[in-house]
Amino acid sequence: MLTDEAGRGANQAPEPANSVKNPRRTGGDLVQLLTPSGERISHPEFDLWISDVSDEQLCSLYEDMVVIRRIDAEATALQRQGELALWPPMLGQEATQIGSGRALRSDDFVFPTYRDNGVAYCRGVAVPDLVRAWRGNALFGWDPYRYNIATQQIMIGSQSLHATGYAMGIQDDGADSVAVAYFGDGATSEGDVSEAMVFAASFQAPVVFICQNNHWAISEPVLVQSHVQLADRASGFGIPSMRVDGNDVLAVLSATRIALDRARKGGGPTFIEALTYRMGPHTTADDPTRYRDPNELEDWAAKDPIARLKALLDRKALLTGELEARVKAKADAVAAELRSGTINMPEPAPLDVFKHVYSEENSWIERQKDHYTRYLQSFSGSAQEGAL
Amino acid sequence: MSQLTFARAINAGLRKALDNDPKVVLMGEDIGKLGGVFRVTDGLQKDFGTHRVVDTPLAESGIIGTAVGLAYRGYRPVCEIQFDGFIYPAFDQIVSQVAKMHYRTQGTVKMPITIRVPFGGGIGSPEHHSESPEAYFTHTSGLRVVSVSNPQDAYTMIQQAIASDDPVLYFEPKRRYHDKGEVDEAAALDRALPMGSARVAAGGSDVTLVAYGPLVKTALDAALAASDEGVSIEVIDLRSLSPIDYRTVEASVRKTGRLVITHEAAQSGGLGAEIAASLTERCFNYLEAAPVRVTGFDVPYPYSKLEMHHLPDLDRILDGVDRALGRPNSLSGLEG
User: In what helix (H) or strand (E) does residue A198 lie, and over which residues does it extend?
Assistant: First the structure.
């Protein structure tokens, strides 16, 4: 795994002359280290941050992306079969989520959106927990402190402020961990994202903003949100930014390491725009054929993040039958775990509706709970009684 | 015991909280060097540093949103919203994040955030500086809402609010900031009246008059005036607006049989409606008359030369008391 308690990945890289030393890099050309055909392009700055990535780790990144694509497919199938109410697919965004997710340390803290299931997978969240909320069995699936990843935010952009505040707390604690906010292109129009950048810059908070520009906010193309590159917005806040090919797992990994390293060393926030594409619908309830040109989908299919890493592995003669079998077995196992975990998920009890509204006793809630308990008990002898 | 103004009493309470718990952090606009536009945080940045008393950018959603992140990290942020009418940019973070996080995470993430809001009118301010937005927040589950009426409660309840693991909206009656009162700074917090309890501010037997925040003083003045006419008013200072301590109110109404509620906020959909409905449900058979509301009108907060018409005062409250008692009043002869 690239995630490394000692921060080995990033820290073992030689100190690059033109990254941390030149932290004001803003926007600029799209950084790509791996072409759609799997050709590895060298880059004077970004290469330094992935020079430690071994063949074995390349295979591991490939496995991760295949697995989360499989999670996505399985969850979509579960929705179609009526086992989930809804699912927001991440299809096409695997490189952004794995490349960034695998750059993090376990004591970094992630503030994700509802679509960042690949990032949650990197944090070690049990796969059935990814769908708990989408099945309606909870508002949210896991204990944020167990994996250091917060609730998957549904309100667009709100979590960017939470990450910034968390980073201010890290700063006050004198720690060298980093808070990471994920959001999409649509979120950059929300006031909260602007306010987060104001606060982050003002306090030089150790926070990384990872903007997955997947080109669509439900039906609205990114041009509705912005007439400049999203990465260029950061400079107005005094925040250095990078614009990377989000379908290139190596470019995303490198950019995230640069940003994390800067934050750990007291260099403040960074904004990363990862240019990717939402290949699927916004959610399983959406119909992109109403607003999207199918040719665009074809263009992006040719830039697929998994296909290009697979092509690189092939070029390097790493794509063995043994590897493919291993990856398939892992994906099959994870999909089976997701399916059985979903179908066998325990149902909530009726009175759970009153649980955890407050951490302290509350007379209004207690009274309503008491009355509803009596109401349910009035159906004496029915199955309800036992369910209390 | 010491004589403190309302503002100094809150200041003393904040100081004590900062002293007692290194995780307490104050955030807001102009709260540092200036000490707040009402000087409530005067001197605190000097004594506790810029990391614990933080002058924030001018962005209310940003203040509350970053407080959520700090709470995630284990801090206990105390946010100042400079004026009542400035809270709306933060409404989304308060209602969608602060209020719901504990429920959303099944109790794993606590939001011990205190949001201080100077509220109410009576000081001749321009627009957006005199509002009473408390009902928006009492209608939001997951929040606790309190309003203080005197320096002692201000001192005690700010500490209770900060110590609470639940988020608390703490409404400060800005027109009372300069009122003085006895404050026992040595009193132990755990022996104080719980934050969720109402208090009988003046005993009486003919009418129950429910008030909170700035109007408690007006209600007490009204009770004094009524006693001259032989009418005995029991004044209840709600203190907690969510949840409301209905036991205390109910015990009073069972005794008096008559209920008047007063607040500065607009009438329709306000707390008075909620209290009237709840008391009607709880002790209808004890009521001798319909509950009466004496409140601000259903108008935007007016320009300052009209505010004395909008704000309930002693005479309007006594007129309401007369209605509850069936005595001649301004609406005599009108149905309902």
Answer: helix A191-203
Domains, in order of start, for chain A: 8-343 (3.40.50.970), 350-387 (no CATH)
**Measured between CB atoms, does B161 come within 8 Å of chain A?**
no
Query: What is the pTM for the complete model shown?
Result: 0.94
| pLDDT single digits (tens) A153-187 | 999 999 999 999 999 999 999 999 999 999 999 99
pLDDT 10s digits, B11-30 = 999 999 999 999 999 999 99
pLDDT, averaged across chain A? 92
Fold that domain B199-324 belongs to in CATH: Rossmann fold (3.40.50)
Which chain B residue shows the shortest CA-CA distance from A162?
B69
ipTM of the complex model = 0.96
Between positions 163 and 222 of A, the ones with CB within 8 A of B are 163-170, 172-173, 179, 191-192, 195-196, 198-199, 202
Q: With beta carbons under 8 A apart, name residues in chain A contacting B277.
A: none
Please, what's the b/e burial string for B155-172 (b: 16 or more CB within 10 A of its CB; e: otherwise)? bbbbbbbbbbebbbbbbb
Name the catalytic one among B102, B129, B263, B310: B129
B41 near B27, Cβ under 8 Å? no
Taking each helix axis as running N to C, give the angle between helix B271-283 and helix B246-256, from 0 to 180 degrees, rounded to the nearest 10.
Answer: 60
DSSP A291-331: T--HHHHHHHHTT-HHHHHHHHHHHTT---HHHHHHHHHHH
Chain B CB within 8 Å of residue A360 CB: yes
Amino acid in the structure at residue A336 = A
**CATH 3.40.50.920 in chain B, residue ranges:** 199-324
Choose among A109, A324, A23, A197: nearest CA to B61.
A197
Q: Which fold has domain B2-191?
A: Rossmann fold (3.40.50)
pLDDT of residue B187: 87
- DSSP letter string over B212-248? -TTHHHHHHHHHHHHHHTT--EEEEE--EEES--HHH
Across the A/B interface, how many CB contacts are shorter than 8 Å?
Answer: 142
